Amino acid sequence: MSAPGISLNGRYRLEGRPLFDVALDLPGGQWSCLLGPSGVGKSTLLRLILGLATGGTFDGTIRASDDAPLSDRVSYMAQSDLLLPWLSLTENVVLGARLRGESPDMARAERLIERVGLGAHRDKTPGALSGGMRQRAALARTLMEDRPVVLLDEPFSALDAGTRADMQELSAELLAGRTVLLVTHDPAEASRLGALILVMSRAGTQVWPGPPAAPIRAVHDPATLACQAALLDHLRKAAA
């Protein structure tokens, strides 16, 4: 399946009051990174694309660039890991296929579990894992779905700095050519990963000028660091 672009245009209301206006065009086959203050509606945008309940109403349009339905082409990683506590790590990773009545590719699941650094923990249940391990298990489950559109809601937030960088690089490698929308609070992450960087506020969403190099960018690249610093300054001023 090809990776379509996605456009969102409209107004979202919560309890009858406008929460945000949105006019976004997410390029197909690239990473878009979305930042903004807590409560502005970033996670709600992901749920709108997914067609999930949000508690509010959206007046507008959500469409793929090829005009085909998105429903069967999207994988989603929520802020919470949503691992089932009675299943092993491995069975959580292949849960999507099980729920669809499909036979999961166990060899691929094992490879993904190894690549997220959890090979020694594959038979453990979520209660025996740390928060960072659980988040990596949820990442492996999302990658296992192999969809052309991938929505990630703060997927690396529970990880230490070194593991975070490793998982960013792994995700960039395995999701190359997919349409990815990443919600993050980390300017460094957006500056490193985003082909398109978006800053959301109640007044709307603006495109932020990213570094000239193509993602994934080197951690110490001067242009990446400059983008990170400018973006952090902007976010701090917006929150003041």
Oligomer: single chain
Shape: globular
Q: How much is the radius of gyration in Å?
A: 18 Å
CATH architecture term of the largest domain: 3-Layer(aba) Sandwich
CATH level 1 name of the largest domain: Alpha Beta
Return the domain count.
2
Number of helices: 8
Order of helices and strands: EEEHEEHHHHEHEHEEH
Largest sheet, spatial ordering of strands? 5-6-7-3-8-9
Distance between the termini: 44 Å
Query: In total, how many beta strands?
Result: 9
Runs in which pLDDT lies below 50 for 5 or more consecutive residues are none
Give me the secondary-structure topology.
Layout: E1 6-14, E2 17-26, E3 31-35, H1 42-50, E4 57-64, E5 74-77, H2 89-93, H3 95-99, H4 106-115, H5 131-145, E6 149-153, H6 161-174, E7 179-183, H7 187-193, E8 196-201, E9 204-208, H8 222-239
Parallel strand pairs: 3-7, 3-8, 5-6, 6-7
Antiparallel strand pairs: 1-2, 1-4, 8-9
Descriptive overview:
With 240 residues, this protein is of the alpha/beta class. It folds into 2 domains: 1-73 and 149-240, Rossmann fold, CATH 3.40.50.300; 81-146. Helices cover 35% and strands 24% of the residues. The chain contains 8 helices and 9 strands. The strands form 2 sheets. The protein has a 6-stranded mixed β-sheet, with helices on both faces. Helix 7 crosses helix 8. The chain is globular. It starts with 5 loop residues before the first strand and ends with a helix. The model has no long low-confidence stretch (mean pLDDT 95). Keywords: ATP-binding, Nucleotide-binding, Transport. Pfam families: ABC_tran. GO terms for molecular function: ATP binding. Belongs to the ABC transporter superfamily. This is ABC transporter ATP-binding protein.
